[in-house]
Amino acid sequence: MASYHIRKYQERDRKSVLALFSQGMEEHIPSAFRHLLRQPQTLLLLPGVPLVLLFFSGSWLLALLASLAVLVVLRLAASYPWKKYVALSLQSDMADITKSYLRGSGSCFWVAESEGQVVGTVGALPVQDPTLREKQLQLFHLSVALEHRGQGLAKALVRTVIQFARARGYSEVMLDTTTVQTAALSLYQGMGFEIKHQCYFHVSARLVGLSSVRLVYRLPSSQGGGLCGSQESIDPAVVTSPP
């Protein structure tokens, strides 16, 4: 049995957390690229550019090189939104995780540790919107190391956020993911999150057809403990999984 301990973030975890976050985001680039290749505009562009060059130049070599160039440009376009998100995060909430997540009672950042290594992360911040009727907590940066997936660790991290939100009197837990993150969408919906709407988180995402999906988990009002700001830990059965 592989045992995982979910605990509050400490400064010594910073390097591992940032590496896990960056690697996790970049893993979605191939899926985004395949998604872009299926877009109607791409299906016109891929054969269109080489055929136009072939018509005007009569060179099959030039047409072939144009096809390769288009694929390279599309790959770069598919990767840009993810790299942009990582860069923005590293300049904002992830620049100082302690300051962003651990200074207030209504927010927290957790890591999952296995054999002394950080193998999972998740954070939560209150939604600052005066127009909201409900008190919302937003889930951020859920990530699990590739070799530790499929063992229930992601669910345990999400449950940690839900438990924290319930203990702090939040009415809802919300999060944003994307349409190409099918495993994440399946995980969240299987845990009771509901899709509220879709949008584009950046103009670069709109250009490649990468829409963001907002999901919400409704919480009944209740009292309970919380993992952040105390020594309480969750049920070890939640974080113990077969190898």
* Proportion in β-strands: 15-25%
CATH uppermost class of the domain at 2-10 and 101-241: Alpha Beta
Neighbour order of strands in the largest sheet: 2-3-4-5-6-8-7
- Write the CATH homologous superfamily of the domain at 2-10 and 101-241: Gcn5-related N-acetyltransferase (GNAT)
The largest sheet is: 7 strands, mixed
Radius of gyration: 21 Å
- How confident is the prediction overall: mean pLDDT? 86
The termini sit apart by: 6 Å
Low-confidence stretches: 230-243
CATH topology of the domain at 2-10 and 101-241: Aminopeptidase
Give helix and strand order, one letter per element, not per position: EEHHHHHEEEHEHEHEE
Number of strands: 9
* Helicity, as a percent range: 40-55%
Shape by Cα distribution: elongated
Q: Per CATH, which architecture of the domain at 2-10 and 101-241?
A: 3-Layer(aba) Sandwich
Structure description:
The chain is 44% helix and 22% strand. It is an alpha+beta fold. It has a domain at 2-10 and 101-241: Aminopeptidase, CATH 3.40.630.30. α6 links the parallel β5 (136-144) and β6 (172-178). Residues 230-243 have low confidence and may be disordered.
